[in-house]
Amino acid sequence: MQKATIKDVSERSGFSITTISRVLNGNYPVKKETREKIMKAIDELNFSRNSSARNLRTKKSNLIGLVVADINNPYYSKIAKKIDDGLFEKGYNLLVCNTDESEEKEKRILSTLQDKDVDAIVISPAAKNIELLRQLTDAGTRIVLIDRNMGILDIPFVGSDNFSESKILTEYLIQQGHQKIMFVSGTDKAITAQDRLFGYKAALEENNLQFDEKNVVKGYYKQEDAYKNTYTFLTNNLKSDEPCTAIFSSNNLMTIGIIQAIHELNLRIPQDISLVSFGQLDSQEIIEPKVTCIKQNIEQLAKSTLEKTIEALDDNKSNIDSNIIRDSLEIGTSVKNLNK
After folding, report:
1. Where are the beta strands (DSSP E) in the chain?
2. Is residue 14, in this structure, part of any structural domain at all?
């Protein structure tokens, strides 16, 4: 007779795998009535009560879920391609899912991936859904965070030091004589957006420059939003007595929208306004002027993520340490030196 699985218990009791896992582990409060129904189903199916959450799976699906914020961004599509190539060689298939920076869409995707019994999920979270990720790990799903750290100590993370690198990029502008710097920010819930804004603020503060909330423009990590809001900001800002002389774009897609707005206002880079970008443009080598940027090490990030994922699938080798990828400041020709 075939051994009962946790799925069988779920179908018999009417409760989710996550709830059943909590009852078995005893590490979360569960209603008495719920617990009794689940235990009754376990007894009826003769399900082994000694199985821990990480041993509940009876077989591997050889499926890995990759959940990214915006697959249109070359940053994510390149990462997905490299991870897919590496996992395929190991006998795994990759399911790529796009949240479009939506918290609700992310919840649905994670629920679907859990239903498909994926062996692991690699995710760049749209929001700080710690409880949701905790439910997945409790149910035995391996999780690897990329790009956006959520500070969960027992879940491995691979990504950049967004605070420090944003600070370095802002300091470069300050060294070139820029004091009024417009900052185009990402989505409010993304930890990367918060860290990059904090890095910008820290650089201003350490150089005795006042942070002005009015110089922060929402771009939501979207090209179109960055274009529209930059266009509006610059139209008004250029009329002021002390206009911004530089723009800090906090991701590569927004940089494209910002360049579009600058061109439509008949402004020149860097003669009329300087520009830096957190993340390189896809055609960085052929665009003029070449945008000064934090050049993200996509190759190393994808390689380290692949290694972390393979480790997570092996209980004997699992390593929960964070892996901070070293990016570099690439100097282009998009910043005017105001000290001359």
Report:
1. 63-68, 93-98, 120-123, 142-146, 157-160, 181-185, 216-218, 246-249, 274-278, 292-295, 323-325, 328-330
2. yes
Q: Residue 15 sits in a domain of what CATH number?
A: 1.10.260.40
Query: Are 148 and 195 within one domain?
Result: no
The residues, any chain, with a CB within 8 Å of residue 110's CB and separated by 6 or more, are: 67, 121, 123, 129, 132, 136
Task: Supply the range of the domain harboring residue 29.
Answer: 6-55
Per-position pLDDT tens, the chain of length 340: 456 777 888 889 998 887 887 777 655 567 878 888 888 888 888 776 444 444 444 457 899 999 999 999 999 999 999 999 999 999 999 999 999 999 999 989 998 898 888 999 999 998 777 788 887 887 778 999 999 988 776 789 999 999 999 999 999 999 999 999 999 999 988 889 999 999 999 999 999 999 999 999 999 999 999 999 999 999 999 889 999 999 999 999 999 999 999 999 999 999 999 999 999 998 765 678 999 999 999 999 999 999 999 988 876 555 667 899 999 999 999 999 999 7
**187 and 264 inside one domain:** yes
Residue type, 142: R
- Say if residues 28 and 18 touch (Cβ distance below 8 Å): no
What is each CA distance from 310 to 136, 146, 187, in whole angstroms? 18, 14, 31
The secondary element (H helix, E strand) that includes residue 13 is helix 6-13
**Beta 142-146 vs 157-160: how paired, if at all?**
parallel
Query: Distance (Å, rounded) from C-alpha 264 to C-alpha 177?
Result: 26
Q: Is 335:292 a contact under the CB 8 Å cutoff?
A: yes
169 and 277 belong to one structural domain: yes
Q: Where are the alpha helices (DSSP H) in 92-215?
A: 103-115, 130-138, 162-175, 191-206
In a domain, 78, yes or no: yes
